[in-house]
Amino acid sequence: MAGKNTFDYGMDQYQVGKTNKFVKVLFYIGLVIWAVIDLFPIYWMFTFSLKNNEEVYGANVMGLPKSWLWSNYAKAMTTGNMPLYFMNSIIVTVTAILISLIAALMATYAITRIVWKASNLMNSFFMLGITIPIHASVVPIFITLSRMKMLNSYWSLIIPYSAFSLSMAILICTGFMNDIPKDLDEAAKIDGCGLWQTFGWIIVPLMKPALATISIYTFLQCWNELMFANVFISDKKFKTLPVGIQALAGQHTIEWGPIGAALVIATFPTLFAYIFMSKSIQESFIAGAVKG
Amino acid sequence: MRDKAYRNITIFFFLLPALMLFVGVLIYPILMSGYYSLFDMRSIRLNGTEAFGLGNYKELLLGIGTEAKKVGFLTLNLPTFGSINFWKALGNSLLLAALSVFLQLPLALGLALMLGKGIKGERTFLSIYFMPVLISTVVIGQLWRKIYNPDYGILNAVLELLGKEDAAHTVMPQGGWLGNVKSAIWCVFIPTLWQYVGYHMLLMYAGVRSVSPELREAAKLDGATDAQVDWYVVIPCIKNILRVSVIFAVTGSLKSFDLIYVLTEGGPYHATEVPSTLMISMLFLRNRYGMGSTIAVLLILLCFAFALIISAAFKEREYYGRKKHV
């Protein structure tokens, strides 16, 4: 469209309004201001994680650290137990992702690929889960877990996490699975594949992009979850990062550096992944919202 | 016949893991929440002698409860008044919801519309705006605690730079930004805004980009200015996404927990109490499991009710031709 901005339609002449240069500059200023507001606290977190109290408390509040104090990280690791919390978060998150992936793949296969009467009804049933907040089940799950003496275990988080990720996983799976042509199933059937073989040999290998999207989404949900982790875990041995950081912040009330270091350690994997997969991460969120 | 049996068994096995998780962790607990909310549960076991009925709801909504107190030899059920301030908590979360809808969403929409014009560096801006969404709320809460810190926080440092020390000094004696009854709720809202503008912006941006260029072109041909194109063409086109955003903002505020728990734990003097923090304190501080369930039940009902009301409000104004089905 650039260049020519007038059109002739017979008698009438139409003028296409061009965006005002001045307005465009204003847009830019607005966008940049918000970008700075977004980035500044994160920048500040990185810098104070490397400073000593003297700098944080006034000598050098906003600038880059004068001497980069990596010992803050060592402190967060040793006195703050960060490696333990980090491992716990990984164990819980990865297991929850695996369980919800397997369960979602199988369920979606049964719903979209096998013809039976109530398949649509079953799909709507699972979709109920998208609107159910986790608050709804904290109390009963807490009561059940404590009666079964299962509080303070990995499973007390893994099972609820995978269950609450399930609906979204099925939703995303359904979208991807519907894109796989049904002819493939027919061909497999003619070649003598049963339903199980078709699932294992044909469908699952074609679902790789879906698996990535679901894993990203579930990862972010579980990695950052606080309420369940806070209610079900009180033993240090099983604390995940969000709860661990809470504990650490209570411990180091005077020294800021180690807390900053812990915050950076907890954020690092997510931001690292974001740098490489920003587009697919954004898409997984759009997919989750638009259909939810 | 054998084929059909084989098929049915296969369906059953394929659905089994998902159903077990879904029914066991979502459906059954919700039903149990409803059931527990009818008992005055003060321990994790129902012992069969507990009061059954709407007592919890009465205490929560009307503020009149009963408590067993020992007076000499007797155990009396004495009435208690206003021990749980549910309305205050609900009011706070509705205030947060209103702030989200009227401040956060317009800001997100403005950013999305500006980005949607195909400005240079579009993707970079988008990626920066979305970044806070990915950071754990606990990290964000702890970070903002530092920002608000009355002695060494960056907020007061910035205010000093701007020559507005007065603002900082007026809240200082009353416990700093987070400890002040008046400023606390705003201090809780600002990080929420900061974190989730990017999320709503992303959804709206996706919508703005999906508006067909011909439509914009046609409007411009008719002499519409940029602002008019946005107002009369783009915004009506992304109504569905706006509806989703409003629902998320409102139900999200009703359910908000993480950030408030990290920043204030509902304090000072319940100034930032929301239903979720109240629910958690019922479990841990008061051992009132029945009451905790009651709050959960009311919360779910409110979320569903608001989602329906918002959807209805959007439907009525849909006078732009055919309805869209998502």
Count up the helices of chain B.
15
> In oligomeric terms, what are we looking at?
heterodimer
Could you give me the name of the CATH homologous superfamily of the largest domain in chain B?
MetI-like
* Count of domains of chain B: 2
Given the structure, what is the number of helices of chain A?
13
CATH top level of the largest domain in chain A is Mainly Alpha
Judged by helices, strands and strand pairing, the structural class of chain A is mainly alpha
Strand order of the largest sheet of chain A: 1-2
Main sheet specs of chain B: 2 strands, antiparallel
- Biggest pleated-sheet summary of chain A: 2 strands, antiparallel
Question: What is the ordering of alpha helices and beta strands of chain A?
Answer: EEHHHHHHHHHHHHH
CATH class of the largest domain in chain B: Mainly Alpha
Architecture (CATH level 2) name of the largest domain in chain B: Orthogonal Bundle
Q: Over all CA atoms, what is the radius of gyration of chain A?
A: 26 Å
H/E element order of chain B:
HHEEHHHHHHHHHHHHH
CATH homolog superfamily of the largest domain in chain A? MetI-like
Characterize the overall form of chain B: globular
- SS-derived structural category of chain B: mainly alpha
Low-confidence stretches of chain A: none
Labels describing this entry:
heterodimer, A: 292 residues, mainly alpha, MetI-like fold, 2 domains, two-stranded antiparallel sheet, 2 strands, 73% helix, B: 326 residues, 15 helices, 69% helix, globular
Explain how this protein is built.
The complex is a heterodimer of chains A (292) and B (326). Chain A folds into two domains: 6-74, no CATH class; 81-291, MetI-like fold (Orthogonal Bundle). Chain A has 13 helices and two strands, in the order ββααααααααααααα. Chain A has helices at 21-48, 53-59, 71-78, 82-112, 119-131, 135-147, 155-178, 183-190, 195-206, 208-223, 227-232, 241-251, 256-291; strands at residues 6-9, 12-15. Chain A has a two-stranded antiparallel sheet. The longest helix of chain A is centred in the C-terminal third of the chain and has 36 residues, at 256-291. The model of chain A has no long low-confidence stretch (mean pLDDT 85). With 326 residues, chain B is mostly helical. Chain B has a two-stranded antiparallel ribbon. Chain B starts with a helix and ends in a 10-residue tail after the last helix. The model of chain B has no long low-confidence stretch (mean pLDDT 85). At the A-B interface, helix 1, helix 2, helix 4, helix 5 and helix 6 of A face helix 1, helix 3, helix 4, helix 5 and helix 9 of B.
